[in-house]
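A reminder from the course coordinator: this example appears on the midterm review sheet, so study it carefully.

Given structure:
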């Protein structure tokens, strides 16, 4: 009964637990809302510590997609899917075709795309079983460049609000996570004249970014304690928490990771400490904008132009926060809820 209470509290319409033992597939499809349109959200392939942890992640991520799509002004609801397992496996076709069959079973209420641990090639396997998939090779493809550009624009908007200028020349930015989004973001920040410090659990990824941008590399938790102007989390979520907040020596937090606040109260704590936070699902909406562009038939430039709008949206969130005397994460929620209510 507790699980049903959780679904009711978070507002989910449907959660499907899926299994195909013949191919080693275990999955979760979470549809949070279809009020604005079909629920769109990527497929995350991850080895969770427990099934409960996987379900919790699916619930949080799918609700986040509803708010992200609403704030971005897209005609989409929010959903997410999880494949539980080792995302380094070579036996991908059978797993992702099984996933595609379960996506198809929802009859278009949910559209999937790539996410952590998955790729455009994986989505091609999904596409063998369903048409309700985007982010395909040869179409919108890898959303990372558009996601990173949106985050860059969020960083610029935050800089404008904090220092009165979009310029990042000479600003020190720490980037946690040198995956696809972190790498593209580092490139844009470097071209804008920022000084970079990066970290990643995969030393080869950090080295690649360092070679490309001249970034300094640090290891592990050191990234939280550095003297810098901006912290940009671009790895997994929950890293703004009781342990990390007291160590931050920055004026802005703006990055590409999902669910950066471990709990909502950590957004309150950032505000109390005078750290300006660009809410994650506003800043990183470029990826879903890129995928929506594929669904809507946009060309690549139109998707990139739409990601530019994230700058104005972030400033709108800051305006709401200031006028209503609330933290920025709450202001972003109110902006999303306003659109959902209007629907």
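Designed residues:
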């Amino acid at each position: 009964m507790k699980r049903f209470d959780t679904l009711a509290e978070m507002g989910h319409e449907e959660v499907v637990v899926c299994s195909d033992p013949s191919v080693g597939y275990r999955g979760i499809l979470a549809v949070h809302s279809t009020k604005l349109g079909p629920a769109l959200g990527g497929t995350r392939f991850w080895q969770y510590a427990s099934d409960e942890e996987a379900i919790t992640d699916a619930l949080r991520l799918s609700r986040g997609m509803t708010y992200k799509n609403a704030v971005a002004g897209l005609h989409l609801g929010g959903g997410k899917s999880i494949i539980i397992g080792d995302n380094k496996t070579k036996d991908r076709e059978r797993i992702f075709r099984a996933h595609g069959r379960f996506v198809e079973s929802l009859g278009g209420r949910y559209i999937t795309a790539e996410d952590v641990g998955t790729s455009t090639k994986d989505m091609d396997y999904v596409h063998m079983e369903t048409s309700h998939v985007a982010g395909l090779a040869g179409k919108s493809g890898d959303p990372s460049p558009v996601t990173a550009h949106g985050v860059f624009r969020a960083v610029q908007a935050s800089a404008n609000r904090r220092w009165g200028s979009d310029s990042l020349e000479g600003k020190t930015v720490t980037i946690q996570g040198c995956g696809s989004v972190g790498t593209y973001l580092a490139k844009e920040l470097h071209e804008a004249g920022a000084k970079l410090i990066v970290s990643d659990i995969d030393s080869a990824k950090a080295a690649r970014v360092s070679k490309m941008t001249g970034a300094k590399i640090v290891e592990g938790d050191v990234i939280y304690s550095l003297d810098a102007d901006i912290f940009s989390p671009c790895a997994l979520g929950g890293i703004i928490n009781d342990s990390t907040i007291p160590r931050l020596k920055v004026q802005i937090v703006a990055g590409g990771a999902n669910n950066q606040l471990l709990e909502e109260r950590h957004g309150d704590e950032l505000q109390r400490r005078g750290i300006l936070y660009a809410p994650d699902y506003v800043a990183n909406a470029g990826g879903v904008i890129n995928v929506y562009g594929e669904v809507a038939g946009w060309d690549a430039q139109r998707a990139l132009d739409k990601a530019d709008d994230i700058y104005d949206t972030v400033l709108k969130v800051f305006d709401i926060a200031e006028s209503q005397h609330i933290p920025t994460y709450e202001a972003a929620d109110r902006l999303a809820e306003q659109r959902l209510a209007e629907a």
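The first helix runs from residue 2 to 10. The two ends are 30 Å apart (CA to CA).
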